[in-house]
Each structure stands twice: as structure tokens, then as C-alpha cells.
Write a structure and sequence with these properties.
binds adenosine-5'-diphosphate; 3 domains; Rossmann fold; alpha/beta; single chain; 7-stranded parallel sheet; OB fold (Dihydrolipoamide Acetyltransferase, E2P); binds magnesium ion; 7-stranded mixed sheet
Length: 696
């Protein structure tokens, strides 16, 4: 190199990198020379030692060196170049199926060659198929690598050897181990956490010494890798804290707790709030009174009674003169919330507006008109609520149901939409999915958490059985029996293919089948391909008891509430994850009668599927199920990191590194207080802005 580049230069400044290669490197997330240092190997080759050819054994890779004794083209089933190489201890054949004239000419008798590959026996002689090889000048004989050789994730058009050369150049720029121009973590922090400094960690990971403990490296738990994982988690933590800080520096409307109206509202409810609901309600009301935006996640199992809390928060906002927006993940749920909130706020004289994607233009315009005007109202809808042409006159509170479909990026988009003149509405986020601690500490670190850890009294637990498909007829008899007693059943069709059309088709067939089997009962159908109005009609008929059986796709997964439904049949239950099964099962057990859930499966069951069905049979406790789910799938999978909007990690792995998290949190607070200038640099290094702040 010319010596003018720095780690902050673009990769085009590297020798041999033109615009084509630059694009290729960009595809790997490598823009600056510095980024090469954070592009880490996933495997290593030990080319530090030569093995005598006579000592080779099949089954692993070796580095060998020898003289070409013979080289010729063989015409067998495939044309190939075969070389015999010997080193005095034995001989081996090297076979190349793809070779050029130049290669052929270079491998003449007497040439010194070094090969890396896995030998295998063939008719009494060892052979290597397509080893990596290099022709050696005599003076390099016996000179092997001084470090382990890294293998990097790469992409078409970028050979390992090139990538190794580039990371080597970046390491040279990083310089001596004692200097740390790149290290953003202060010395005392490294000492406190017994972490190596950044240059040593990077050198070690890219070029481990011959005696390195490769098994630690391969498992990603070597101190050098821990140091990098720590820093990456720290950067994520800082970015969420900075998001949180943006909220702290804007103002929110102060929403008073109107105790008189609150008491009336609670009095009129057909039930008494549980202690857990009361506690969470107070947490919400306290946030609403503050002049900074609430950012609260309320987590409560299905049926724990979150809707009524949302209604109270909305009521308080309206009484204080603001609008409240209530956003649901699907049309079906939005409609149901609309019906519920209308009923709950019936005596309050507060207008409830429904903004659906399927309204006629005229009705939609009328709704939009009312929203723009600043009279207090509760506005209910799907994410259509936050589309371009929607404007709120006086938005004070946003309620988001089923958080897991709204990740960090969506929260930010909402924030941008809500912020006007440095003001921002309060945000109340509801989820039935228990959030593992690791995710709470990462993907949701910008939120406060409230947990409704108690179910309303009088619910009898749902009894669950797993039955093989052959026993389908027994299940149908069971449906006939309960429907005869005025109860209702769900039959959920699941299909592994994501296509809505195929799902709808399968559900249609099941409806026909069940109609045939249950001639004296009324079987309805609901699926995602239906018009909202049609879905609405079906749901109303089912809620009103005009249908006995509802065949559905997983559209009913969240939130639907029909207390007289007491039997849930889930087809192909073996294909679903625990959380989804739990959500579906939560549709029954909402009334006074005993409820049942039948998990139909197609044998043979895989070990994990058997495990999942057994867990479902054994417990109704959402927290326990979430914990088991985490054991079976790992925390990242529970909500799906993609859904949380958290960008993928490069080095850290939440399952493996979760015990670093408490220390990462402390370190984040320390850095913000003592070294604020380091925080942005860290965020930029690990999370280029466009990733986390891109809209979805
Ligand atoms: P989720 O938390 O799943 O959204 P919902 O808010 O839909 O639960 O409540 C489920 C059902 O329980 C509703 O029919 C609701 O009216 C009822 N409910 C809510 N709170 C209580 C309570 N404290 N006691 C009895 N029933 C309640
Ligand atoms: Mg709900």
C-alpha cells in the first residue's frame, strides 16, 4: 500500500480494488477498510505444520509438501489431471478435474508443491481431490504459516485468498498491539470486565497463533470474541438508549387521572378488575400524567384482560381533551376492538371512530375529517391508521395491540409520525407473548415493562389432548356432542405453505367435509382471503351463536373473544410453534364451562414436535410455555428477531452471550455518563444508521 490509507478510507483505496470489487465487498457490508476488521472468520485452517505424506490419515485436512514425480492427463469417465507427489516418506496422488493448460504446464516433474486438503485412500494409495495448492520456489520449502489461516464468509467473485490479503492489510493498518487507535472502550471498563483491548482481540480472531484453542474459537467463546460480542451488544444497547433519549427530550400531553370518571367506569364494568390489572393501570396512569411520552409495554397472557386497560387509558386521554389511536395487527381484531371499545365507552359520550382499509371512500373521508378536527375521540384501525394521508388533530395516546408485529423500526416510524412541534403522543403497547429477559434487555430495552401476572377469576383451565389424525372421527363426534349443549367449536386449518390462497382452499375443503359429517349443525368459514365485511358478518354470526362450528385459518390467532366457544381443534398441530399453539388455544376457556383443545397431528412425530405437544398438554401457563419455547428454539426465535426490527448481530449471539447482557447494560450507562462521544462512534461502527432507522 502507498501508506496514505487509513482504517477510515474506503475499500477502493486498497490495492487491486476497483469499482467492481468494491460492490462485491459492499455486499458483505464492507465499505471502509475498518469494516474488514469486523468481518470475522467462521473457521480456521491449521497450515502452520507440515505433515509427512507417509503419516497421512483419512478424515481430516493436512498441509503437505513434496516434489511432483509425474503429471499426466487421464481420460477415464472424466478427463482429469493426475499428479504424483512424494516427500521421501510416501507418495500421494492429486486429482484435478478442472485445470487449465497453464496449470498443466506448471506441474512438471521436479516442481516443488504444497497442498492443503483431506486425503482419502484409493486402491492402496492416498489421494487428494482438488486440494488448494501452490507451487513453491526452493527457498520457501518448509516455511509454513505462522498463524492459523482464517476462513471468512464470502460471496461470488471474492476468493478467500483475496479476502485474507485484504484483512491482512487492514490488520497492518491497525498496527501494533500496544497502540489502540480504534479502541472506543476506556481502559478502566476493559479492566473491570477483564476484556482484551480491541487490537489484540482483532489480531487474535483474524490471525490466531498456532497454539490457539481452536475449539473455543469455533464455539465463539474465546475471550477475544467475547470482547467483540460485548462491544457489539453494547452498541445495540446504546442505540436503543439513544432512541429512548430522543423520546425523553420531547414533550407529551399531560393526561390527568380523572378519578371520578374512572370510578364510574370501573363501577359499571360487569366484573371487578384483578389486582394485577389495578397495579398495571396505576403504572399506566402515572406515565400519562408525566410531561414526557410514555413508552410502556404491557404483557399479559391471552385472556388476562388487557383491552379494558387500553379502554381506560383512552378514556383518560379523551377526558383530558386528546385523541387516542388504537392500532390492531389485523382487520378482524380492529373490528373486534371497535365493538369492545364502543361497548365499554358506551356511557361516556366519547366518539369512537373506526378507520378500516375497506371503508367506502365517502365513509373514509368522513372518518379522516373527524380525525383531523381536534375533538377528543378514540380512533381504531390497523396500521392504516399511520398511512400518509392520515392526520390527527390532537393525538395524545397511541395504543398498539400485539407488539411483536411492530418492531423497533415501526416504533420509530410511529415516533416520526407522532412528533409535531417537538411533541409526541404517549405509547402503550400490548402483547400476549411473554418476552424472554434477553429480548427485553435488547430488542425492547427502550420500553418500560408492566406484567399482568394474574387471570380473571372463574376461568377453568383448558384441557388439552394430542390425537393422531386417524382419530379425527372421534373429534367430530365430540363436536356434535358439545354443540348439542349450546356450545361452539373452532376448527383451525394450518398449512405449512405460507400462501393465503392455499390456506383458504384447505379451509374451504374442511368446511365442506365437516358440513357433511355434521348435517344438523351450522358450519361457518373464515379466512384471510375474505373481504373484511364478509369476515365481519361471519364473526358476528359466530359470536351471536348462529354458527356452531367455525372453520378458520390462523387469522383467528390473536385476540378474538367468544366466551361460549369451548372446543378448539387445531389441525397439523405438529407444524406450529409453542407460542402460536398457545395463542390459538387462548381462544377457548373464556367462559364458565370447561373447555378443551384437541391437537391433531400426522404421525410420525419428530422429537421436537412430540416435545411441543407434550408441553401443551402439560401446562396452560404462558410464561412456562415461553420458557420451554426458548429452550427448544432459543430466545432469538421466540418473537423472531426480524419481527422485532433488531438488525442481525455480526458477532454476538443472544443464546450464547446472554449472560453478558447485565454487564453490557451497566457499561452502557457508564459510557453515556462518562464518555458520551464514544457512544455514537460505537453505534456507527456496529449499526450503520440506515439499518436501524430505516422505515419498514
Ligand atoms: P386479552 O388480555 O387477551 O386482550 P381481553 O381483554 O380480551 O384479554 O379479556 C378477555 C375477556 O376477559 C374479555 O371477555 C373481558 O371482558 C374479560 N375480563 C377482563 N378483565 C376481567 C376481570 N377482571 N374479570 C373478569 N373478566 C374480565
Ligand atoms: Mg387482546
Amino acid at each position: 500500500m502507498t501508506g496514505r490509507q487509513t482504517l477510515h478510507s474506503s475499500v477502493v483505496d486498497l490495492p487491486g480494488v476497483g469499482s467492481k470489487l468494491e460492490t462485491t465487498l459492499n455486499r458483505l457490508g464492507i465499505y471502509k477498510i475498518q469494516d474488514l476488521l469486523f468481518h470475522l472468520p467462521f473457521r480456521y485452517l491449521d497450515q502452520t505444520r507440515l505433515t509427512p505424506i507417509g503419516a497421512l490419515q483419512a478424515g481430516r485436512e493436512y498441509l503437505i509438501e513434496g516434489t511432483v514425480e509425474l503429471c499426466q492427463i487421464q481420460f477415464g469417465r472424466r478427463r482429469q489431471l493426475v499428479c504424483r507427489i512424494s516427500d521421501g516418506t510416501g507418495a500421494i496422488l492429486v486429482r484435478l478435474f478442472h485445470f487449465s493448460r497453464v496449470q498443466q504446464d506448471a506441474l512438471t516433474r521436479g516442481t516443488f508443491i504444497r497442498c492443503w486438503g483431506a486425503p482419502r485412500p484409493n486402491k492402496g494409495l492416498m489421494e487428494m481431490i482438488h486440494p488448494e495448492y501452490r507451487i513453491l520456489p526452493r527457498e520457501q520449502l518448509g516455511l509454513t504459516e505462522s498463524t492459523l489461516t482464517p476462513v471468512y464468509p464470502t460471496t461470488d467473485g471474492l476468493a478467500q485468498t483475496r479476502l485474507r490479503k485484504f484483512t491482512g492489510l487492514a490488520l497492518d493498518l491497525l498496527g501494533d498491539r500496544s497502540e489502540d487507535p480504534l479502541d472506543l472502550l476506556p481502559r478502566e471498563l476493559l479492566d473491570d470486565h477483564e476484556l482484551p483491548d480491541l487490537p489484540s482481540a482483532l489480531w487474535y480472531v483474524h490471525r490466531p497463533p498456532p497454539q490457539a484453542e481452536v475449539s473455543l474459537l469455533l464455539n465463539g467463546i474465546h475471550p477475544a470474541q467475547r470482547r467483540l460480542a460485548f462491544e457489539e451488544l453494547l452498541a445495540h444497547q446504546l442505540s436503543l438508549k439513544s432512541l429512548r433519549n430522543r423520546f425523553l427530550h420531547v414533550r407529551a400531553p399531560t393526561i390527568a387521572s380523572d378519578r371520578t370518571n374512572l370510578a364510574c367506569f370501573v363501577q359499571d364494568l360487569p366484573f371487578r378488575l384483578t389486582a394485577a390489572q389495578c397495579r398495571v393501570l396505576e403504572e399506566i396512569l402515572r406515565d400519562l400524567r408525566r410531561p414526557t411520552p410514555m413508552l410502556r409495554l404491557v404483557q399479559g397472557d391471552v385472556g388476562s384482560g388487557k383491552t379494558v386497560l387500553a379502554a381506560i387509558a383512552a378514556l383518560m386521554a379523551c377526558i383530558s381533551g386528546y385523541q387516542a389511536a388504537y392500532m390492531a395487527p389485523t382487520e378482524l381484531l380492529a373490528e373486534q376492538h371497535y365493538a369492545n371499545i364502543c361497548r365499554l365507552l358506551d356511557s361516556s359520550a366519547i366518539p369512537v371512530i373506526y378507520l378500516s382499509g375497506s371503508l367506502t371512500r365517502k365513509l373514509r373521508n368522513a372518518a379522516l375529517e373527524r380525525m383531523r378536527d381536534s375533538t377528543p375521540a378514540v380512533i381504531i384501525g390497523t396500521h392504516a391508521l399511520f398511512q400518509e394521508d392520515v392526520a390527527f388533530g390532537r393525538l395524545g395516546l397511541v395504543i398498539i395491540d400485539e407488539q411483536h408485529r411492530f418492531g423497533v423500526a415501526q416504533r420509530l416510524a410511529l415516533f416520526e409520525k407522532g412528533v409535531a412541534e417537538n411533541r409526541c403522543p404517549h405509547q402503550l403497547i400490548m402483547t400476549a407473548t411473554p418476552i424472554p429477559r434477553t429480548l427485553m434487555m435488547t430488542a425492547f430495552a427502550d420500553l418500560d415493562l408492566s406484567i399482568i401476572d394474574e387471570m380473571p377469576p372463574g376461568r377453568s383451565p383448558v384441557r388439552t389432548v394430542a390425537l393422531s389424525n386417524e382419530r379425527r372421527n372421534e373429534v367430530i363426534e365430540r363436536i356434535a356432542a358439545i354443540c348439542g349443549q349450546g356450545q361452539q367449536a373452532y376448527w383451525v386449518c394450518t398449512l405449512i405453505e405460507g400462501s393465503e390462497n392455499l390456506q383458504a382452499q384447505a379451509a374451504e375443503e374442511t368446511r365442506e367435509f365437516l358440513t357433511g359429517m355434521l348435517p344438523s349443525h351450522r358450519v361457518g368459514l373464515i379466512h384471510g382471503r375474505m373481504q373484511a365485511r364478509e369476515k365481519d358478518k361471519i364473526m358476528h354470526a359466530y359470536t351471536a351463536g348462529k354458527l356452531d362450528v367455525l372453520v378458520a385459518t390462523t387469522v383467528i390467532e390473536v385476540g378474538v373473544d367468544v366466551p361460549t366457544a369451548s372446543l378448539m381443534v387445531i389441525e397439523n398441530a405438529e407444524r406450529l410453534g409453542l407460542s402460536q399453539l398457545h395463542q390459538l388455544r387462548g381462544r377457548v376457556g373464556r367462559g364458565v364451562q370447561e373447555s378443551h383443545c384437541v391437537l391433531l397431528y400426522q404421525p410420525p412425530l419428530s422429537e421436537t414436535a412430540r416435545c411441543r405437544l407434550e408441553i401443551m398438554r402439560a401446562t396452560n401457563d404462558g410464561f412456562e410455555i415461553a420458557n420451554k419455547d426458548m429452550e427448544l428454539r432459543g430466545p432469538g426465535e421466540i418473537l423472531g428477531l426480524r419481527q422485532t426490527g433488531l438488525p442481525a448481530m455480526r458477532v454476538a449471539n443472544l443464546e450464547r452471550d446472554f449472560e453478558l447482557l447485565p454487564r453490557v447494560q451497566t457499561a452502557a450507562d457508564y459510557l453515556i455518563a462518562e464518555y458520551p462521544e464514544a457512544t455514537n462512534a460505537l453505534i456507527n461502527r456496529w449499526l450503520p444508521q440506515r439499518q436501524i432507522y430505516s422505515s419498514v
